[in-house]
Structure formats: structure tokens, C-alpha cells
């Protein structure tokens, strides 16, 4: 059995005296999961991740991290185990060089200087930033800044990484690099929760999809099940990945990703070619 990292029970949340933004949400996150958290604008995704990080406190229900009630944990306690990457990387970057920026978290956690150096070197290398270690972060591209935010988070050696729309505003090449980075971090044992509106990314990279709709958890399962055509995902404001939409038009096809669609379609095309030759 995989270790349970996060256990959310009957979570309710309202901002101030407003209405409920999250309603009786139950959720278990296991070590090793690669979760995509989806749902229409305002469905409660960011709020849920902020609660999971103890940046907000529940109005009702309980959140346990490794069996411990997070109500008694500070944001600093959570930061030892969970890295959080904000949607806008500029909110997280304030030091003069990339290396100093990435060292900030491990220093705050009072790692020894040798461990800080090792952690920074590892985080820069994982994120492809080693060459940029001495550069001024604010002058780098959005994709590079997003990588700095991830490097800063993983330098604290978290068990789990929560990322809020890390590919927003990036070109497809940067977004793909980012997803490959997250895949490789996940393969190294870091549990990933990725907030995203991008169904293509969910189909291609996530092992589990969770959908929120108007503060309720309405789906928790594999991307294959989410996109199998039997669930009315349009009711939650979602559309299937292109590969799924195309493959539904072709008899016998069940691709979730473009590469898989091409693999499934190629024999048909080759056979068609032979018929014409
Ligand atoms: N600081 C706040 N004060 C009051 N209401 C808020 C606050 N932040 C978010 N909300 C409201 O809470 C609801 C959930 O917002 P949240 O940002 O969690 O949704 P989301 O699914 O992340 O949306 P998006 O995809 O647009 O980022 C929305 O109705 C939003 O307007």
C-alpha cells in the first residue's frame, strides 16, 4: 500500500462571510501520485491547494498531512514537506541571483551550509538552470522564472509539490519541458499536484485526475476514465483532449494522446496506401 500523504475529510471553506467555496470535499493523496486538479474558473482549485498548504484554515472538516492535523501546523511546518509554486512566479522571486534565490528556502529551514549547497546544485541541475546560477532572476523569461520557482521549492527536498497553473503563459515548447521536468521529479519520488485547465496535459502526463465543480469534488479517477466519453465532462466546463476527440470519430480507436493516436492511425494509413498502390 502506498503511504497516504494528504487526507482531506469533509472540507468546507468560505472566504469571510461569503458562501461556501468548497463543500464537503474528501480527498486522499498517496505518495507517488501525479494528480491533475481541474475544473472551471472559480471551482475552488486554488483555494483547495492553499488549504492543503495551511495558507488558509478550513471553515469545517479536517486536513491531515502524514496523519497530523494541519490545523496545528504552521505554513513553515508544511513548507518542510510540501513545496508550493504560485501561478505568478514573480510573487516568489526577490533575491539577486538564481542560486541565492534557490538557496533561500533551505537556509530558512536551517539546513547546514553543505546541505544548502548540495540541495541548490541538485535543484538547479534538475530544472536545467545550472548555467543561469549567477544571473539576475527578474530579467529571465517567464518559463525560466517558473523553473526558478520550482527549483526553490524542490531545494527544500519536499515530499510533495503543488503547482498552480505552472504552464500558463508559456509557449508549447516550454510547457512540454515543464511537464517533462515534473514527470522526472515524480519518478524520483516527489508527489505532484498540478492545477491546470489544460486537458492535453492531463491526458498525457497525469496518473490521476480530480475535478472540482462549484466547490464539490465531482470526479476522482484516471484520465482514461475521465475522457472515455461516458462521462459528461462538458457539464463541468471541460472539453476532451484533441486526440480523444479525433479518436472518438474513428472506429476502434481509444487514444488519449497525440502520439498514441498517431501510433493507432498509422497502420490504417499504411493499409490505405497499399490499397491505392
Ligand atoms: N481572497 C478571496 N476572497 C474572496 N473570494 C475569493 C478569494 N479568492 C477566491 N475567491 C472566490 O472563491 C471561489 C474559488 O476561487 P478559486 O481561485 O479557488 O478557484 P479556481 O478554481 O482556482 O479558479 P481559476 O481557475 O479561475 O484560478 C471563486 O468564486 C473566487 O471568486
UniProtKB/TrEMBL annotation:
Transmembrane segments: none annotated. It is an enzyme of class 3 (hydrolase). Residues 6-239 form the ABC transporter domain. Pfam families: ABC_tran. Signal peptide: none annotated. Keywords: ATP-binding, Cell membrane, Hydrolase, Membrane, Nucleotide-binding, Translocase, Transport. InterPro entries: AAA+_ATPase (IPR003593), ABC_transporter-like_ATP-bd (IPR003439), ABC_transpr_CbiO/EcfA_su (IPR015856), ECF_ABC_transporter_ATP-bd (IPR050095), P-loop_NTPase (IPR027417). Its EC number is 3.6.3.-. GO terms for molecular function: ATP binding; hydrolase activity. Belongs to the ABC transporter superfamily. PANTHER family: ABC TRANSPORTER ATP-BINDING PROTEIN MA_1418-RELATED (PTHR43553:SF21), HEAVY METAL TRANSPORTER (PTHR43553). This is Energy-coupling factor transporter ATP-binding protein EcfA2. The gene is ecfA2_2.
Amino acid at each position: 500500500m502506498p503511504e497516504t500523504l494528504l487526507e482531506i475529510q469533509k472540507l468546507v471553506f468560505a472566504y469571510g462571510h461569503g458562501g461556501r467555496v468548497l463543500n464537503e470535499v474528501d480527498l486522499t493523496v498517496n505518495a507517488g501520485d501525479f494528480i491533475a486538479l481541474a475544473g472551471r474558473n472559480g471551482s475552488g482549485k486554488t483555494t483547495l491547494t492553499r488549504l492543503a498548504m495551511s495558507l488558509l484554515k478550513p471553515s469545517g472538516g479536517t486536513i491531515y498531512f502524514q496523519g497530523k492535523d494541519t490545523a496545528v501546523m504552521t505554513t513553515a511546518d508544511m513548507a518542510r514537506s510540501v513545496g508550493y509554486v504560485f501561478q505568478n512566479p514573480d510573487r516568489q522571486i526577490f533575491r539577486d541571483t538564481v542560486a541565492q534565490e534557490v538557496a533561500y528556502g533551505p537556509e530558512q529551514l536551517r539546513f547546514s551550509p553543505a546541505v544548502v549547497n548540495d540541495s541548490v546544485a541538485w535543484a538547479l541541475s534538475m530544472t536545467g538552470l545550472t548555467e543561469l546560477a549567477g544571473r539576475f532572476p527578474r530579467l529571465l523569461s517567464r518559463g525560466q522564472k517558473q523553473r526558478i520557482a520550482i527549483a526553490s521549492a524542490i531545494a527544500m527536498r519536499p515530499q510533495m509539490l503543488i503547482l498552480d497553473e505552472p504552464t500558463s503563459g508559456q509557449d508549447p515548447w516550454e510547457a512540454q519541458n515543464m511537464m517533462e521536468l515534473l514527470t522526472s521529479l515524480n519518478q524520483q519520488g516527489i508527489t505532484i499536484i498540478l492545477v491546470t485547465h489544460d486537458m492535453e496535459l492531463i491526458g498525457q502526463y497525469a496518473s490521476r485526475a480530480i475535478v472540482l465543480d462549484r466547490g464539490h469534488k465531482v470526479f476522482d479517477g484516471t484520465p482514461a476514465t475521465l475522457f472515455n466519453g461516458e462521462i459528461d465532462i462538458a457539464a463541468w466546463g471541460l472539453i476532451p483532449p484533441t486526440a480523444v476527440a479525433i479518436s472518438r470519430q474513428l472506429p476502434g480507436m481509444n487514444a488519449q494522446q497525440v502520439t498514441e493516436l498517431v501510433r493507432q492511425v498509422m497502420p490504417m494509413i499504411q493499409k490505405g496506401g497499399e490499397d491505392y498502390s
